[in-house]
């Protein structure tokens, strides 16, 4: 079983590069299942019904969210879609799904969305405890999108649950890390990176960020409008649901010199 995990989709250019590249990536790598983090897909912060529909139509099977899950009021109109997962340990707890189980060929794939506790004000319960209900239902493969700041927290979580999980892929920092590994049969990467404006500050307009940081101006959250980078990770699993190969993917835009 091969699964493609796509990193944080940021803004319009991020949405477009996913839509443009996913068909060719499917042809080249033949993934059986595609997961993507879409919490920054609508104007860089949150998700709308329109952007969700556009991205799912491009060939994504399940979309995860993060600390901006409820940034758009529109989310309440489609949060109960079983293909959309919000962090299990973030309020409001009564809306949407923190994990789901999906039939793929002859396998059941479990996917969970969690939010880290370190430097993440939006998470309301201990991520190490909140994941426990995810193990109550039978699945052949279990994957967690760990949306968090601290690489140490993501690695520690993986060591604790390596025997129960097939993969833990980090999101949120928008910078793809180079620490992919397999821990006791569990695939791990601290951060999958982003699909969004390459010439930017984590997706945001460079000049705006400089005015905020250097000049201490009050600015908006403006997404850069530059060509996008695509980041993701390919995971291969054996019949027992253990990860046997992990490979980072990164497609950078062609920039003028």
Describe this structure in words.
With 257 residues, the protein is an alpha/beta fold. It has a single domain (2-251), classed as 4-Layer Sandwich (Purple Acid Phosphatase, chain A, domain 2), CATH 3.60.21. The chain has helices at 11-29, 49-57, 127-130, 151-161, 206-214, and strands at 2-6, 8-9, 33-37, 62-64, 84-85, 99-104, 107-115, 141-147, 167-171, 181-183, 186-189, 194-197, 228-237, 243-251. Strands 1, 2, 3, 4, 5, 12, 13 and 14 form an 8-stranded mixed sheet that branches. It is globular, with a radius of gyration of 17 Å. The chain starts with a strand and ends in a 6-residue tail after the last strand. The mean pLDDT is 94.
Number of domains as seen in the coordinates: 1
The assigned CATH architecture is 4-Layer Sandwich
- The average pLDDT score comes to 94
Q: Could you give me the name of the CATH homologous superfamily?
A: Metallo-dependent phosphatases
The computed structural class is alpha/beta
Form type: globular
- Element order, helices and strands? EEHEHEEEEHEHEEEEHEE
Look at the structure and give the CATH class. Answer: Alpha Beta
How many DSSP-defined strands? 14
How is the quaternary structure best described? Answer: single chain
Reported for the largest beta sheet, the result is: 8 strands, mixed
């Amino acid at each position: 079983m091969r699964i493609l995990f796509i990193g944080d989709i940021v803004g319009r250019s991020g949405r477009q590069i996913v839509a443009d590249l996913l068909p060719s990536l499917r042809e080249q790598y033949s993934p059986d299942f595609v997961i993507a983090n879409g919490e920054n897909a609508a104007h860089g912060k949150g998700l709308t019904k329109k952007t969700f529909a556009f991205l799912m139509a491009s060939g994504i099977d399940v979309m995860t969210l993060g600390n901006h899950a409820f940034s758009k009021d529109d989310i309440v109109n489609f949060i109960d879609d079983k293909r959309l997962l919000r962090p299990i340990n973030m309020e409001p707890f009564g809306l949407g799904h923190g994990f789901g189980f999906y039939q793929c060929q002859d396998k059941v794939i479990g996917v969970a969305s969690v939010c880290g506790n370190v430097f993440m004000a939006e998470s309301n319960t201990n991520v190490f405890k909140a994941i426990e209900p995810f193990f109550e239902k039978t699945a052949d493969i279990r994957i967690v999108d760990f949306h968090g700041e601290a690489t140490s927290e993501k690695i520690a979580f993986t060591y604790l649950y390596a025997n129960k999980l097939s993969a833990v892929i980090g999101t949120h920092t928008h910078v793809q890390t180079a620490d992919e590994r397999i821990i006791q049969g569990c695939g791990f990467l601290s951060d999958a990176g982003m699909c969004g404006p390459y010439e930017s500050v984590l997706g945001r307009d460079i000049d705006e960020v400089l005015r905020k940081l250097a000049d201490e101006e009050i600015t908006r959250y403006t997404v850069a409008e530059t060509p996008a980078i695509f980041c993701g990770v390919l995971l291969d699993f054996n019949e027992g649901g253990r990860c046997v190969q992990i490979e980072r993917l990164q497609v950078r835009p062609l920039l003028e010199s």
